[in-house]
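Recap for those who missed Tuesday's class. We walked through two folding examples back to back. For each one, the amino acid string is listed first and its predicted structure tokens come directly after. Nothing is annotated here on purpose, so try labeling regions yourself before you check the end of the notes.
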Amino acid sequence: MNVISLFNGMNTGRQALENVGIKVNKYYSSEIKPYAIELTQHHFPDTIQVGDVTKWREWNIDWQSIDLILSGSPCQDLSAAGKRAGINGKKSSLFFTFVEILEHVKAVNPNVLFLQENVGSASKLDVGIMSRALGVYPVRINSSLLTAQLRDRYYWSNIKTKETMFDLVTDIPQPIDKGIMFKDILTSGSHIIPQEYLKECKSGNMSTIERDKHTCLNTGSGNNVSQKSLIKRDSTTNMVTLIYEVNDKIRCKTNTIKGYDVVTENDCLDLSFPTSITRSARVTKGKSPCLMESNNNLYSYKDGMVRTVNQIEMERLQGFPDGYTSILSKSKAGSLLGDGWTLPVIEHIFKFINK
């Protein structure tokens, strides 16, 4: 196949095609992050880098030869974690650039396949706008079926579709749940909490914590900690205790009626927004929360120790082999993993191409 990958990131689409046995002839990557390009070329040096997606009319491509277009357009304006500017926001509006490219290729190759992904927390209005622009409604798949991470995403594709009474919908079936839990991806060893986070914490007695599934990876990552109170209340800074111990049990302050959750082994603790009134801390049972492009402060608890997830664990949360991002620093790897696709989910979708 000849493929164009827009917003290519860490090149998950190419890796997924290789993993399911689909031969790639030419693979064009549109990406501007230097370390994303570095990782792509490390694994697939034959990748053709074409640059900024907004300058697509300048690309030297035989458009008629393109068989597959991949797009993971920016989600910052659509996500519940963002400012909800919507599909017409500054970043998420790049979706319409993908639509322009898709329509351009369709004019010379009506059989071109496509895959577009975006966050599951997008509003119904924005999902409707994107669906009408693409002529197909999406399937919704949570990465938790194939990994230890809660990562809810919409996938629009014409790889496999079906007609309903009123609409054409993406007909990719749900993957079979592999039952992978957060505890299953943890390694031994510890890490140090980043200095940028420590400056918001007050020193205290050392202690630790761990969990089952992790929430979604976002662009960013953290290190290790072992303190009974990560943040103490301070009259001058108005800081609030997030983690503390009561009757030999570790509690985490949460935005719930009782005000806390008990952290047990195999739980995942999310401290990505320590100063937020509504999102100060989260405890997820069994799975990890979603990795993000930034603010990845995910912790595990075991044997009285709280530590952040390490680089290998972040790779596992997105379904990649250990060491896949080893040429990058943890922060750069966390950025790409948190902003990227879950490899086993894309493999699952691509298995229907040959069919």
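Example two. Treat it independently of the first, because the proteins are unrelated.
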Amino acid sequence: MTKSDFSVDVLVVGGGISGLQASLDLADQGFQVAVVEKEPSIGGKMIALSKVFPTLDCSSCITTPKMAASAHHEKIRILTYTELKGIEGAPGAFRARVLKKPRYVNEDSCIGCRQCEYACPVNVPHSFEGGFGARRAAYVPFTNAIPQLALLDMENCVLCGKCEKVCPAGSIDFSQQSEEFIISAKSVVMATGFELTPPTAKPQYGYDRVPNVVTGLQMERLLAPHGPYGRVLRPSDGKMPESIAYVQCAGSRDASLGVPYCSRVCCMYAIKQAMLLSGALPLADITIYYMDIRAFGKGYEQFYQNAQAMGVEFVKGKVARITEGENQSPVVRVEMIEDGGVVRERQHDLVVLSTGMLPGWQPDGVEGLTVAEDGFLSLPSAKLRPALTSREGMFVAGTAAGPKDIVDSIVEGGAAAMEASNFLRSLDSAAEAGIATVHEGVAVGGRSDGAGGAAVRETVVAGGRSNG
């Protein structure tokens, strides 16, 4: 045991939208919850989005209240910048080994004033903004990060000490080390999320060679009102693009990449972004190159038809490669399926790759938890009880079990919370039944007034009568 070890009713691994939903549902039922998040802030991928489909509601307006509610809930303890290393033990008595990475900032005293960030002289590409814009080596992850605490990027820090000098709370601690400790939990909810297919996985698409080829998540940041530029600009020269193209299945439905499955959300987020671009850049031509449009959810087909009515061009074709043309503009070589398979080259100012979903975590060090053929956590009863895993007492939420959209992730977060709640109550019922049995045995066999003995004797006599 270390001084940092503690116990909770439920451990939620992952602080994205499904993990937060599960945590809030469990905490509102009175259970003690711990949330372990590997990033410096909770919120997951959703907090980086501009708007959500098909309603085009503000993504931050949905996510931030859940982040704040979790952070201020008396039954929820949040551990950011912390990684799960393994889980051992039996159902009802799990022991999770976690590693808290050093922020080099004292979390108890930091007030999030950003004075360290303003004083830091080192600029590096802003990872939250998709590499667009810059942040300092001492920084708060993003504007509405929770917790609103700074951290130091020691890979780029020059140890000038300016942050330490200006910190009004004296929170900078260059000697901080990683800390490993144990969280004991009766139940576990795995909400480990997803990662994106690397855009360089298909080198023919030129992501690392053609400067104006970006990913869908990078476009989300360009479209966001609080994004790096406040508008949509080409990365190479800062100009507003007049022609934008989307390449679908750029990392999904591709056996050569080991990703034969459909990632489900790519068509819809491309259509959503195309509609947002039509509003942000009314004169721009927007084209979506697709193999199949998979608009599977409620209202999604109508959303697709609305995009067509707005003038978004949908071209059924397979993109072979993307090269650099004049003025650093990408040139898309595509087989036009509906035109008899003729091959054409079309130039655009900006190309967006609709990358797919990969598992965000593998259950190494977690005995009994298995994965399916696609690498996501396996579900023994996917249709009837989609939150169940192969390990009793452990449940799954969101994209930890496979690609899905925000709506389904939130619903499954609630389902995982209910499964965990039922499991915990079954443990309590079993414990109460065991205590009741013990008490009953003591009450019958241990009476001092002789009534217990009389009852036993009566039963023996009645059972031994020879006359019926």
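Answers for example two:
Residues 98 and 188 are 13 Å apart (CA to CA).
The chain has two domains: 1-101+178-193+360-459, 203-356.
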